[in-house]
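User: quick one, fold this
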Amino acid sequence: MDIGDTKIECGPLCFALQYRDLDGGAPHGQGPEGRGGNNPDQGVCLQICGQVDGKETELLRFECFDNHPHYHYGPESKNIRVMLDPTITGNPLRWTMIQLRTKLPAMLARAGYETIALQIDPSLLVHTLDEVETKACEMAIQKRRTVRHNRGTDVIEAGNIRFGLEMRTAGQDGGMAIHVLGDIAGQEIELLAFDCFRTYPHYHYGPRYKNERIYWDTTLVRDPFTWTLEQFKTGKLPAMLTRAGYPTVAAALDEGLLAGKLPEVEARGRAMLQA
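Assistant:
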């Protein structure tokens, strides 16, 4: 993996920072990482590098992701990957900084770079890590990818949520879009979005929050609009809202009212597609 462009030197070490933004199942060359097959995730990537045999080498890597945070010992040699349990560790970036302040030499030794670990100046490391944490926290806030869509041209109320329908154009692509909207702290927020596009159809969990974007496999899902309605009809909406980060909205859904509104959503959407 490429070394991050934001670099902070510390004696024999270099701390490199970058923000990684992965789309789920993005078609080849379409996702932010330029390749498909990813799990949807985003967050700060902190790499610890050093010179090994005259070459800049990645010694440790911490992927402080929203959904699947993890770290690597010796990505270019052993590549031992350890997953984090964010329920236990809490914020993965904060957890990472604690480990770097207390256990960095031991982690470098396990990665196979004990010689480099012995060259670290502890006092210099303390000051450098303060700078690293400040920069990483700024990056986590400023580089987070969220999207803001229109609410739709046709809006259908369904209790504590509403469905916004529109025909979207996105560059050379486009098609039917379904926005699931709700009121959070007195403001209308897009909770889920389904872009049933012609070429690269995809959907979003929490576009204004975590924005997990997942691409459909069009070999298996030939009609994303019908697929989306099927998820609503078969009771998947509460689970999807919960995954998007809105469990209280999911718990307050009126399922009877929702079932009565879905035929109207489908009829309106199909009429728009035909037009």
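User: anything notable?
Assistant: The first helix runs from residue 86 to 89.
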